[in-house]
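REQUEST ID: PR-0412
SUBMITTED BY: lab tech R.K.
PRIORITY: routine
TASK: structure prediction, single protein chain
INPUT:
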Amino acid sequence: MSLWAHMELSGGDFEKSTELCDEVLRYGKTLKDKMTAYTTKVVALGSQKGKVEEAVAFGRSVLKELGEKIPKKPKKPHLILELIRVKLLLKGKSDKDILSLPQDARSQDKIAALGLCYTLIKVCFIHGAKMTVGLMGLRMMRLTLKYGHSDWSCYAFAVYSGSIVRNLQAAKRFYYLTDTLIKECQSKEIKTKAMVTADGLTTLWCQAMDVGIESLKEGYTIGMECGETHFGLKGGAFLTHMQMFRSVDLSQLESDARILCDQMEDFNLDMMYELTAPRRQMILNLMGYADDPVKLTGDVIDEDDFETRFSGIRNVLGEKVFQLVRLELALHFESWNRMEEILPKLVDQRDEIFRGFFIIQGSVFVEGLVSYKLFRYTGNKKYKKHALWCTKRLEGWVKDGVFNCRPISLLLCAEKEVMAGDKKKNAAMNLYEAAIKCARQMEVLQWEAMFNERAFQVLSQVYNDVNAGIPYLEEAKKLYVQWGAHAKDDWIVEAYGRHL
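STATUS: complete
OUTPUT:
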């Protein structure tokens, strides 16, 4: 019956799955009998509107039975204490020591506890319960270090590397340990979880973008093959966002995103759909399949209706991604009012919600470029302050070795030089050229097109040197057409056609 309950969960019938789990728990006698039903029930409850707190309370009660007490409402001191305990267990251990941890004879109950901790992370993460997520991740790491390796080790290390990403050197160390453990993991289901988690949290801080894309493709494929649809499709959602920054035609991206959105709806994975559908609609807008390209409304979603989805069940990650995509469109089609409206919505709690995720790199860049443009448009110094903050942050990441941030850091540094006036013209244009070259080398077609467009705007509008800017405009137009962004091409013709 546990298998039946899990099948109902995979099929999206969460209420039926919960009922079947209750039957198993009513008659089950051993931990082995009950464990699958415990984890399935937590996920089934957490997938139903208004039942997240019930899911967490149930999971906590099971962990208590397994000897792991979790505070009802974790706060920062709880995380600090758990982190100290983890660091004490790590103290003096080499990578070889960590990878060869023996398995303790008492570990079976703790392996069950690891499964429950993972399940609570899965339920709490999408709802923004970061304290619970952080505590569960650290507890998984502590249990692994104390009781030895299991198949859950790779997932525990993936979460831990993401949780310490502010210390990039330490995060990189545990990212590479995670990669080793993933290769040794015998469970396809757990391997998928670890791969998607590492790629969403840490890979793009440590590796080139291509590595993350190929790993997400593999995680998606394995997840869908072995029935781990939640993480398989989470990998698909991350992949949709990441592939916007490759030289892939928008029509192909839209086709891939359409398949993913259909699968998410088939499996009733509303929260994964809410991460993916806005990006798919943005792609359609750029291609020209929307009445108003700047508004996130068309065949996939209606912007106003979609925003109301977030007023019930709290999908804070989806809500923040939604605002990011809206701001990207406002930037592409230079809608000043929308840029002013959306920017503060994105910035609010951005670090708390995007912390560790690769998405924060793109968010800080878009915020920075929007802020530079709004400062020039409005003269409001709050935009200048935020633009400089974004520039400094990207420069810091590049200094720490985050290769993927280099082109967008160069672009914002160019914008900073522009504020100094004509005396910094040569320095600014050299930085635009460097940003364009770097984007081309990384094969990020969108960035290469945007950077050329921005170089033209600065030359023509700031330095009054239209003739010098025209080659950049022509290159931007060519690249947007190559990308398949026909609405953007039309906008360029309408805005700057006299120069073409």
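NOTES: The mean pLDDT is 91.
REVIEWED BY: pending
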